[in-house]
Amino acid sequence: MKRLIIFPLLGALMVLLPGISPANTIEITIGDFFFTPSTVTVTQGDTLKWTNRGSMMHNVKSGQKCTPDGQWGSSNLSTGDSFSMTVDETGTISYLCDIATHCSSYGQSGKIEVKADDDGEIENPIPEPIRKGDIPIRLETVATGLTAPNWGTIAPGHPDRLFVTDQDGILWAIQLGTGEKSVFLDVRNRLVRLGISGSGTFDERGLLGVAFHPNYVTNGLFYTYTSQPVDGPADFSTMPSGVPANHQSVITEWNVPDPTDPDSVADPNSAQELLRIDQPQFNHDGGALNFGPDNMLYISLGDGGGADDVDGQVFLDTDMVGHGIGNGQDPGNVLGTILRINPFGSNSTNGNYGIPSNNPFIGRAGFVDEIFAYGFRNPFRFSFDTTNGRLYVGDVGQNKIEEVDLVTSGGNYGWNLKEGTFCFDPDNGDPGFVFKCKPEPPGLKGPIAQYDHDEGTAVIGGFVYRGSGIPALQGRYIFGDLSKTGGSGRLFYLTNENKVVEFPLPGSTALNLWLFGFGQDASGEVYVLGNTTGVPFKKTGVVLKIVS
């Protein structure tokens, strides 16, 4: 079964079904003695339109080697005139201008490659491989003996330390000069039991995020994102009545008694719960926390887990619930979104936090007031550029596409109508797939960069480099992929044109780690976080500094 996508367009309803879709019109310019583009690839049913932009008469006729074959052609076209033709058969079509010696002397000819219009599924959506960039780096070991480190950040007033969340429930304070680490907070007793198939197995739940308040030096406050057992009603839920959630995502405020003292740690009795969210399945939790330049707290949430973001898909031998036709496109709940809240306010429904009055959907019917942006599958890691405040999100894809989004207030980033720049079909029980959008669903924001699963499995968002150690990296977004093959994560950066390239690692052919996250210190230097097992067990986790 193919997915029927219906969306509003110009006040009417447009229906899009893979394989039964409106054709494109491809524009070709006729210049004096040339066609541009001279070679185009189109799909059956597309229309070619040639327009004479030159200063003299030209025509368009089928044929090869400057000889018309009489199958089709235009009359002579004056400047501004056009000729159109719809292509119905696959294959290669050659054409030319046969006026005077335009072809024989000047080579005025072109070629059309017509591909089949099949059911729309694209097996290899991005054929071009990711190349090596021209900025080589080394990785310098800072700390070892962690489990599955996934985020590193600073506490204002403590520039010599990096605070690192470990998935198994430890928040580490790491001295950057010595690599010495100490426990700043232990929430292991709050977490669900990790390992979806028992101890030693994969999981996406755990301690997933931490953010220190911008005024931490004076108020001693910081916040965590944890995956906890179901413990009473959630503040937000998509679960059917009587069906328990897999777990609950909990945002908690903590206090440090003396935030100016490096030896002072979190008071374990200071926990104040801000909000609690039901999660239908174990995966796609999001989990990142950051304070923006506006001093508001931003929270990333995935679509609720499973696969394809629709009820009824079979996931781990169970029919999925808690998604409806897709949480990503349902701003009436918080799954698949980035939230923006004020921890010091109290105008939320539960009274534990505030909802900023300038949030984009305040008072809008069908929207949760806390939402800043939506349409995400699993925005596992996000960060703000410390120089200009831009918000970068690594949104983990489904079966084909990984993407990086530059997120703005009120944006809809497409899931599950789209995966990257491609349209997405969950395929009613079979694995979902991508296909070419014809036409584009309106009102969606596309990624600034993407790659497909020939190159990796899950994008890991990072940071814009603002350090001084590698001048060539200044202003470049650093990110990576969990693992192209078992235990072989990859490190990427974006060029000035937002092209994905891979860091050369002189002396090494691979990272040889599962990549779980990145960190950034007070100087803008960036750190790589990962382990050798790919699971939140054993002590193979490391923190590595990116250096020249």
Description:
By secondary structure, this protein is mainly beta. It has 2 domains: 20-115, Cupredoxins -  blue copper proteins (Immunoglobulin-like, Sandwich), CATH 2.60.40.420; 138-547, TolB, C-terminal domain (Neuraminidase), CATH 2.120.10.30. It contains 1 helix and 40 strands. The strands form 11 sheets. A 5-stranded mixed sheet has the order 5-11-10-7-8, with no helix packed on it. Strands 4-3-6-9 form a 4-stranded mixed sheet, with no helix packed on it. The radius of gyration is 27 Å and the shape is elongated. The two termini are 52 Å apart. Residues 1-22 have low confidence and may be disordered.
Rg measurement, Å: 27 Å
Separation of the first and last Cα atoms:
52 Å
Assigned CATH superfamily of the largest domain:
TolB, C-terminal domain
Q: What is the general shape?
A: elongated
* Mean pLDDT over all positions: 93
CATH class of the largest domain: Mainly Beta
The total count of helices amounts to 1
Named CATH architecture of the largest domain = 6 Propeller
Helix/strand-derived class? Answer: mainly beta
Main sheet: which strands, in order across?
5-11-10-7-8
